[in-house]
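Morning. Coffee machine broken again, so started the prediction first thing and wrote up yesterday's gels while waiting. Chain of 119 residues, entered below exactly as on the submission form.
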Amino acid sequence: MRDPISGMRTTTTGIVNAFSSLLRQKCRPVMVDDECVKQMAEAGPQRLPDNWKGALDTPLTIDEIKIAMQKGEGNKAPGRNGIGFQSFTATWVALQGDMLDLLTQMFANGTVTENRNVG
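Came back before lunch.
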């Protein structure tokens, strides 16, 4: 490895030292003042208006799930199980209650179990 200051480095220690020096030079801290940090923090996500909070807590409906399912493309599978959107839409009447229960539980718990993820 060639170090621009010391020349060619051939030993393990020399290579590690040259690499460390290079990283320290390229990744040195960026100097900022407190006012800049404050402005960046204030530019981030703001609080939701109170009238929007209720909409986020309303339960899913079968109609919302059906609309989302209709946005899928034909035989393209939304996951690794290979079941395409056409399969879901063709069996929608039979599956809609189960899909509503499944998605409601997933959103309420905030997790997806491995069995649900695989199908």
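Residues 2-43 form one domain. Going to sketch it on the whiteboard this afternoon.
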